[in-house]
Amino acid sequence: MSNIELSISADLTAAEIIRANESIDDKTAEELAATLHDIVASVKKAFALRPPDLPLHESDVVQTVLRTAVGFWPADWGAAANESVWVMEQLTDVEQLTGAKDPYKSYLRVCDRVSGTDCASLLS
To answer: Measured in whole angstroms, how far is the alpha carbon of residue 65 from the centre of its chain?
Structure first.
């Protein structure tokens, strides 16, 4: 997926990961950032395959995935829950459209590592 360009660098994403959880070392942050960028590349590929008249924008999905993975969720619990479901739906669609291997589970693993949770294990 490296041929799909992302305007946000993996270094910046790694820095955001460290900012969200200072106990994460540089190497781990770089690995987590690479995973997120692979997911984003799959999102971009999925949007290239979707009909162009959909009301949803690629940037909405990309920014939400990158933002929520480092713990920036809406302050309102209900809005955060709705956004969580929306992210799951979007990444499930990505998997169906592109054949990407478990983008939602990969996303959850990154979120788990950053926030110290274990949500991905619930999918096993």
So the answer is: 3
**Chain centre to alpha carbon of residue 18:** 16
Kindly write down the DSSP assignment for every residue of the chain, as one continuous string.
-TTS--SS-HHHHHHHHHHH-TTS-HHHHHHHHHHHHHHHHHHHHHHHHS-TT-S--HHHHHHHHHHHHTT---SSHHHHHHHHHHHHHHHHHHHHHH--S-HHHHHHHHHHHHHT---GGGG-
Locate the domains of the chain by residue range.
10-123
75-91 per-position pLDDT tens digit: 999 999 999 999 999 99
Residue 104 has pLDDT above 90, yes or no: yes
| CA-closest candidate to residue 90, choices 123, 59, 114, 124 | 59
What is the C-alpha to C-alpha distance for residues 103 and 35, in angstroms, rounded to an integer?
9
Measured CA to CA, the distance from residue 118 to residue 38 in angstroms comes to 21
